[in-house]
User: What shape does this take?
Amino acid sequence: MQNLIQENIEKLQAAGATYVDARWYPFERSDSLMMLNGNLKNASSSRESGIGVRVLYEGAWGFSASSDMGVMGAIFDKALDNAKAAAQRVSFPVRLAEKEAIQAAFESPCQINPFEVSQSEKVAFLKEMDKKMNQSGVLQRYGGLNFVQKKIFYIDSEGSHIEKLITEVFARIHVSGLDEQRVCHERKFYPQRLGESRGWETIDRAIFSENAERIVRELNEVLAAPECPKENRAVILLPGIMYLQTHETIGHALELDRILGYELAYAGGSFVTLNDFGMLQYGSPKLTARADATMVNSPGSFGYDDDGVAAQDNLLIDKGILVGAITGRQMVEEANATKPIFKGSGGANRATSFYRVPIERMTNINIDPGADGTLDNIISKTEKGIILDGVKSWSIGSNREQFHFAPEIGWLVDGGKVTGVVKNPTYMGDTVKFWNSLSMVGDRSTWQVQFVDSCGKGQPNQLMQLGHGVPVCRFDDVRIGE
Amino acid sequence: MTDQIIQTIRELREYAVDKGCDVTLSYHEEDSYLMRFANSAISLNSNEHLIRLEISVYSDRRRASYEMITDLRHLDEIKFGIDTAVEMVQHAQPLTYEPTIPTYAADFIDESGYDASLAGISNDEKLKYFNQAVAGLETEHLKLSGIFASGTNIVCNINTRSEHVQYFSTTDAQVSIVLAHATLKWEVIAEQSAQKKADLNTATLHRDLSWLIEHYQRDPSQQIPTGTYDIVFGAAAISSLLSVMNWIGFNGGSMKRDSSFIAEDKVGHKVFSEKFTLIDDPTRLETFPFKKDLMGLDRQPFPIFEKGVFKSFIWSQDDADEFGAQPTGHTVSHNSLVLGGSDHDVSTLEALAKMPRKRDVLYIPFLHYLNIVNLSKGVITASSRFGALLLKKDGSIVIPFNVRVTQSLLDIFGDKVDWISKAAVVYNTSSSYGSRNPTALVVPAFMQINDLAISQSNTSY
Assistant: This one.
């Protein structure tokens, strides 16, 4: 099969293509189990295979994909035809940043293949969690398990041959209930990434059991709590909401395709401009953020991206100053033509499946731990604040310039002490002003790796998996309760 | 092609019958094309031809499903999928209720939504269409973005209870054209939905874009103060607000799971403005409807709100089975919502801007990143995007920087509704996550709601 792909790549080169790559998925399989109030509502599996072909012709992209490998020549021809049509309207001819020709393999670490674990064991886990969550105050109980495994062969016209096997496990539990006014509240548990692997072994029943009890207890506290006040306070974000703050207002804002205007028809742009690199005080000096695709245990690590570039650990924000972006080969070249900023591709061009084209995607967008101690240390130094955790709702401006988040739970802090739980907490702000109000960053003890298994972007739409390593952070003078 | 698909799916049914379980087979074939524009170039020109088969198996209250991307020539692979689903169901846990198995009493073949001209639209035609729609509007600073997404969708269902099939084929196109200022970062949009090629019309797109660009380049811009405004929502915004009610409004399963802002005892009571009449109307071809649901139930126009009075929840078969309700023909991948117009005679942006008004009016055409803040109270939040206008009472126009609306749907569609335009628009809400599933609503072009709060206001574009 690989020889046949290579032959077709050479055929298109002979026909005038300046670059060709193909991603052949011999298989991508997934299993999904969902238990709702003790009912196994969903027990499903899927399997897909096929090939996606990307072609550059006279500075324009064409792409074609099919699950029918019996018509491979036609798939390549169609991709070239599509590129020729696109070449009729070119404003900046596509160029690709230089890279090494790579012959390599990557396998995500996995001790126990989740596809070799019996269905009955998986269902037993969900039943056990359902039983733990079936407590007073809880009206809806949800448990979900998702497993993905994909084999990918990447071959391009520059001599790269890369083989990847990626296995992911995603697990979660939720509870919800009604307060006296019949308003629904929820608490969720998404486990942080621990250890050095990404297989079935990451599902630790003891941790899930402990957290099932915790989210039920906290749900009941929320149900009995007063409303969140409408005022300005310091907000202390726990990793369960801090990861999304990072995702939405650093990660998406620093995708170079958004910055260059390639997502304006759908996902949106970015308030960041090319002139901001090296100049913009994105956050306070306590903020250092990076795109680290080399962490072993997170879905934002993939070995090599879908441009065939090795995964990297790149600084995005250094002590508050914007220094980097989330980049692939094409966008780096286009940006550098305006202003030489990037030394090469950041290795972050990824596609969600064989039938989608790679675009700039977050890897693991992390915030470095700080020197402000533990959560208790941060609380003790907060005169008037609120601790926030969990994600109920999030909405962000189209250029990522402002946001509104609704966490699941808030704990008021007054005089350095936690004084009680409030319900319906929200907070909002303007992105740059907010990050510049970052006043305390927790130490390594507060740092957790959280996952995102369905980050949407692009047209045709794509869902991507990634991670965020984040500490507890405090931001001052933030509007809450709106 | 139709006969070949039906013949193959029947052959697979025979294989499934021999397994001794109840099996449903759902065939989905898409031929999808997307021409994407950015920075005044075609940034991507792509196509996918994919065949999916979803196999669901039922046995003693247990249910399992297996989905594959495959090819009809690979029958052995598909039969392996059936074997896998049959094996899976043995390990599934019984439901606490009896799931209903679909039974089709007769063949139902609906190709009324298919248009060969749209299915075969060429790259050159799509490019010409875009070039016409933005003719003379692009400049060094004004850059074109957008999509021309089109395709063909075939769905064919069968099950082991009968040999009859349900077959649907449709064509669709979704067009978005954005013109954005490269440095100032403002952006305007014009959109179109098509079920057939004849629906495509560049003149209206060009008219709307021209009018918006003229005002965005000429009129003053400003950060408007937060507070209450009389707001006119455009078709895209209205569609977003209605779509969210599919999940947290009139869905019976959501209501029973306490995930709805409409309580069970609201049936027959006034919930919204008397100007608000919403039906699910599968006779409207432009909404890419299913005239029968997956269970084989006929789908007829179904009133949801009539003059503000809540008429009925919709029930999928599975939710009806679980909660002891009557299914309403809503075991479908999308509804065909039609929001009735009123007698306010305004159909274009230009006409809206010329309307006499006693107070300033904020026009919000599009809501970006709408999310649910409090589902029990129907509170949503979203930002304005793509061509907002502040229509001053003196007749002048100011360009507002984007604003955030955080409001309850009960307020938005409640007694604060001032008027709803008579003119209707087909608004395409399709996404391309997962399999192709074209969706559209028929909504008024404009709708004014008074005294809605703006909670955030940007300091620049």
